[in-house]
Amino acid sequence: MFKPLSIFIGLRYTRAKRRNHFISFISFISIAGVALGVTALITVLSVMNGFEQELRTRILGVASHSTITGVDAGMRDWQSLPPLLTRYPEIEALAPYVAAEGMLSYNGVVSGTMIRGVLPDQEPKVSNLADKMLLGELSDLKQGEFGIILGKDLANRLGVYLGDKITLVTPQASVTPVGIVPRLKRFTVTGVFEAGMYEYDNALALIHLEDAARLFLQPDEVTGVRLKLTDMFAAPMLTQTMVGELPRGYVVTDWTLQHANFFRAVRTEKIVMFVILMLIVAVAAFNIVSTLVMVVTDKQADIAILRTLGASPGRIMRIFIVQGVVIGLFGTLLGLAGGITLANNIDVLVPAIERMLGLKFLAPDVYYISNLPSEMKVSDVVSISLISFFLSLLATLYPAWRASRTQPAEALRYE
Fold it and tell me: pTM of the full predicted structure?
């Protein structure tokens, strides 16, 4: 008795047993539609967030959060750079590197490769390649011994194993009495790694920094310095700060620029999936419209009596808005419960379904990520809930407006 009249009657209409059971069935379908849409949205976006996080981790496990290079081809006296970077607490570690391209040859098989010269004792500070070794260790790269570590797919394509001798052909050429000949150097395979990214496993090869500098005619010179940050998402802001504060002659980039197209494509895909799956909620909202239109038609006599007792059109409108809001609210809450439960347990449910059906959704021999990672974000859950509830509220306006336009005389003429 303490509730406002419109809320009291609206809730009563919602829970009362209707004469028309078809209306009750449509109401149930509307709630189920909203719940299904919200569940699908939360689950799919969580899986896409998980894939994005997994790909970002794998990429940045080999790449770097930020990179400082010279304006020219190389960077001399790189040892003077670390003291300049001590003013930035965001920088956790740094390591120099030499980057170049070349061709590897073994038993008549030739393959292009990206050569990266590293210091074995400093490289683990900025990447996780040391943890990705399948054969050998990163520390097996010794200065002057010309050892080389290959990506898994690159090693398989060349058909090499530990201890095999392969030939590296560099873009530089040497002038000899017989003419200009390419620079060749024999390397010993000392390890194989698997980063989990085709781009690196298929083309990346690691050698010692000093060997790379000597081979590519860059004595006392490196390509740049790779940085690892305490927070990878602080890289863009830190990059802008360093560009303005470091001396001239340095170029600073970060992972958001180096892989901008890739992460932009992932973000666009996520937005498209959000819009497509939101159509499920929109269809459920249309069901709310049809449900309330039939309720208004079924309750014509009740509306007319309320009008003759002095209920205003606005109060009649609020009665049916309450009813639609209850449907949307229940659907959204059920969808939240289902989506959160499914997103948090998808790593258990998917393997169980795979065992039940006897198949693998993401075959390891085809996909580098063979499981379904999930990362549920509070911001996604909140935005999905608010949009779903808003659509449900929007769907109630037309039927409620129609109810408020009911004329008592016309509605009671045949009663």
Answer: 0.70
